[in-house]
Amino acid sequence: MPRSPWRFAALLANNSSTVATSNSATSVKEDDSAKLSEVQSNILQKENQKETRINETNFHPSKKISFNANDVFSKQFEAAKSINDLLDLATIPALSTNDALTLISHITKQINSGKAEIVDVEADERFIHLRKIVKTNDNIKFGTKKLSNDLSQYSKLSTPAMISVMASLRDQGKRNTPLLRMLSYNIVKYNMKLNLKQCASLLYSMAVLNFPDKVLLEKIMNDLLICIPNTDMCINSVTSKSILTSLGFLFYKNVDVLDAFCDAVFNESVYYKTHDCLSILQTFAALQYKPKKINLFLEKFIEYAKKGKTADWLDVVWCLAVLDVVQPQYIKSVLEPTFVDKLFGLYLLLSNVQYIRVPDEIKI
């Protein structure tokens, strides 16, 4: 019996130890579960974030697609070697307005170089698609007027209206090449017969803007041959000078048109100022065109030119030398010391350089 309390105490101690051990194990298991739950939660959170990014990409694809489309366009555009290659670029998804405008501009340039027919390209579905893309809200200002950058709208304009648009570009000095090409394309496409004034306006605009569109020039030449008056009719001297000098600045030579104009220029009933005659003569020299009646023209012009300005006479002699009709006395006249002194004095005057007279007493 005396040992019973001890055994009871030992049993209690053993039981308490077992309980403590059990509680400790349970605590460890709970900690492990908490850590596992935390890890799983982190994994799920990362997966959700990843899925969210994917969903955001799906819902907002414009930036990535736009970047990829631009990258693809640049590479394929540089590799394009034909009109068909350029037209294939119209099928690129999310093609921008600027890229479509670039394609139309280069395709029109290829047409002007004779590498394709306008009718064939115009009927192509890819080209039609490009024209539909070219739409923007941006405007170009010309004085008090605004012209839209939507090139497709210019196909709705009449030929006289498009000539006016080109004149507006000329007056404002706006060499908008894509717009100029589109206007030229549509003017040739409509194939309306141009009168003398319209031809003069177009040639002047092309000369000022340095835009020698080959196809449009050929159309203008064909229309000029139809509308140039006969020998029994007079052609305005201002119009003649404008057309001829524009051809000179464009370095475009059409012998048939030049011959037809020379008949009008040499018409005795039409009065030309000396300066106008000089401009026409310079055009002949620039184009290396020697009219059949040039001697008749020079007989009347030379006498007036000799009395004109020093620099003008030098230009006359140069033109005559280029055309191989210069007289020895003309060359001699521009080599004389008095003529050279006048020319040099004119140069100094234009350069705002004044002679400084040195007093005799300090001359060495």
Strands, helices and their partners?
Elements: H1 3-59, H2 62-79, H3 83-88, H4 97-112, H5 118-122, H6 125-133, E1 139-142, E2 145-148, H7 159-172, H8 177-190, H9 196-208, H10 214-227, H11 237-250, H12 255-265, H13 274-287, H14 294-306, H15 310-322, H16 328-335, H17 337-350
Antiparallel strand pairs: 1-2
Helix pairs in contact: 4-6, 4-8, 7-8, 7-9, 9-10, 9-11, 11-13, 13-15
Description:
The protein is mainly alpha-helical and 364 residues long. It has a domain at 71-138. It contains 17 helices and two strands. The protein has a two-stranded antiparallel ribbon. A hairpin with a 2-residue loop joins strand 1 (139-142) and strand 2. This is FAST kinase leucine-rich domain-containing protein. It holds the Pfam family FAST_1. InterPro entries: FAST_Leu-rich. Residues 278-343 form the FAST kinase leucine-rich domain.
In short:
This is FAST kinase leucine-rich domain-containing protein. By secondary structure, the protein is an all-alpha fold. The protein has helices spanning 3-59, 62-79, 83-88, 97-112, 118-122, 125-133, 159-172, 177-190, 196-208, 214-227, 237-250, 255-265, 274-287, 294-306, 310-322, 328-335, 337-350, and strands at 139-142, 145-148.
Supply the key terms.
mainly alpha, 17 helices, disordered C terminus
Instruction: Describe the global form.
Output: elongated
Structural class: mainly alpha
Q: Strand percentage, roughly?
A: under 5%
Q: Radius of gyration from the CA trace?
A: 42 Å
State mean pLDDT (0 to 100 scale): 73
**Helix count, per DSSP?**
17
Organism: Ooceraea biroi
Protein name: FAST kinase leucine-rich domain-containing protein
Domain FAST kinase leucine-rich: 278-343
InterPro entries: FAST_Leu-rich
